[in-house]
Every structure is written in structure tokens, then in C-alpha cells.
């Protein structure tokens, strides 16, 4: 036996080696199949599994023994062709969604790589030939060009990357044009702070800061915009109380819940500072605040609205309902400061909404 195994020229040894190598070649062929073929293979497995389940379910239906909940559902699905077909399509959809998710992630990474190359090439060209300063940017009139432009990195949400035609693309492209220097942007609309400082994007940010510092040219500035999407939109309903005419505006905020949400945002900023300190301590972080928003229910090219849905869900009256309900002039409310404040707020919001719409 040992002689046969050690002798590659023997017939038995050659046959055994061939049989041992076949599964590996088959596995390699499967791995090389394109995504479309893998999708069809996965859908075929789903169909075969569903056929076996239907057969088992019908066998269970003919027996007199008790059924589990899962068996009962299988029997119903097997007896109902439409439900069975819908389940098969649902499984196929899950397969497709998984593939599309991987494809979108691949496209996102490719876009980030494209931005990085464009930034590096633009910056290198400007640094070698000098940057012509825009009027008013130089502190000394005699200085019209510089050869050591600011190195700026940006990470954030739609304030930095606004994918709406005619909007100018957000703050980052406008600021880049104003300063006359390229800005390397990792931002994309709708992003949340908890994801920016989550595992994947945290690594991307740290990798980029480290890359430039190791090259001897660390970023001078990190522009950061985050936290708004973590607080408003659908999650906003969690920290706004149901409308109660007896409560003041401040009392309609569920303070403990709101503070919990803000704690997550604060944790993100704390980690951002710690990350900067660890990999690029020379880089300064610049952030921004928000203006007063009017919950008038308007969206922007199907994005939004972000505030009004929560107030409607919580039963808040509209501006028109407040004025109809009171049906009195603001000057007659001096004795009731809370109500007067509500009317003033309603009137100012109504005026602001009209101005914004005009």
C-alpha cells in the first residue's frame, strides 16, 4: 500500500491523485463564474429548497400528527400557489439586493479613489507652478501667487456634498472655488455622524490622514460636518412629545431622550478629535453650526422634508390652525405671555415661509 502511494507512475497512484484533484478544479471553476452566473446558481438553490419544503409540507398535511407553527405555514404556502410564487420571488430579491449592495459599495470606493487621484494631481500641479490668488484673499497686495497652498480634507454630509442640480454641489466645491485650492472630499449626502466615526469610514479617514502625514505633507485643515442627520428626519419623532396646548415649547422636547441622542453625537466628535490627535496632530478641525430651520414641509428634489413630518405625527397644529383657533389679534394677548409667544411664533413662521416661497 505504501509503495503504491509513493509511486506516481503506478496506475493506482495516478488514479487516486486524479480523483483528489478534481474537486479543487471544480471549486476553482465555480469561483471564476461571473456575478450573473452566481446569481442564477443561488436562485436555483432557492427554487430547489422551496420545492423540497413544499413536498415536506404536503406530506405533513396528509398526516394526522400535530404540526409546528413552521410546518403549518409551509402547508399553507404549498397549498397556495400565489403565496409560494411570491416567496420564491422574495428569496430571489434578497439575493439581488445583496449583490446590488456590494456593487454600490464597490462604486463608492471607486469614486473615493477617483477623488483622491484628482486631488493629488491638481494639488501637485498648483504647488509646482504656484496658485494665482483671487482678489481680496491676499493680506498683502503685492502677493499675487503662492506655492504652498493649504492642504484641506473634508468629511461630512449634504452640507459638503449636495447632489442637487443647480445647487453648486454644497459648501466644499464653493469654498474650493473661493479659495482657489483643491479640497479632498470624503463627504456624501445623507451621511450620519455615527457612521462617519463607525468602523469603515473611520478607517478611511484615518488612512487618508496618515497617508498625507507619512508623505511629509499632512493636511492643514479637516473640515467636518456631521450630526444633523442623526438628530432630525425620522429619528426626530423619538424626542418630540405629543402636542399639548398646556405645555411650553421647551416642554415639548423629551429632554432625557434628546440628551441621549446628543450623547451619541458628542461621542462621535470626541472620537474624531482623538483620531486626529493619534494620526495627524498638526491638522486643525473646523466645524459649523446650523441656522434656525422652518418646518414648512418642502423637499429639495425629492430629498426631505426633514422636520415637518415629526410635528404632524405628534399632532402639532399648523400656522393656519393656530391663528384660526385663537381668532384674536396678537395685541389682545398681553395678559397671556405664553399664548402671545405662540401667536408671535406662528406669525413669524408664516411670514418666513411666505418669504422663502417667493
Major sheet strand order: 4-3-5-6
Overall domain count? 2
Helix content: 55-70%
Specify Rg, calculated over alpha carbons.
31 Å
Shape: extended
Overall pLDDT, averaged?
77
Topology (SSEs and partners):
Blueprint: H1 2-6, H2 11-31, H3 35-62, H4 69-79, H5 81-129, E1 131-132, E2 145-146, E3 152-155, H6 171-179, E4 183-185, H7 193-196, H8 199-214, E5 221-224, H9 228-231, H10 255-279, E6 284-286, H11 308-313, H12 319-326, H13 337-357
Parallel strand pairs: 3-4, 3-5, 5-6
Antiparallel strand pairs: 1-2
Helix pairs in contact: 3-4, 3-5, 4-5, 12-13
Task: Describe the 3D structure.
This protein has 358 residues and is mainly alpha-helical. It has two domains: 2-101, no CATH class; 154-316, no CATH class. It has helices spanning 2-6, 11-31, 35-62, 69-79, 81-129, 171-179, 193-196, 199-214, 228-231, 255-279, 308-313, 319-326, 337-357, and strands at residues 131-132, 145-146, 152-155, 183-185, 221-224, 284-286.
Features:
single chain; mainly alpha; 2 domains; 4-stranded parallel beta sheet; two-stranded antiparallel ribbon; 6 strands; disordered C terminus
At a glance:
The protein is mostly helical. The chain has helices spanning 2-6, 11-31, 35-62, 69-79, 81-129, 171-179, 193-196, 199-214, 228-231, 255-279, 308-313, 319-326, 337-357, and strands at 131-132, 145-146, 152-155, 183-185, 221-224, 284-286. It has 2 domains: 2-101, no CATH class; 154-316, no CATH class.
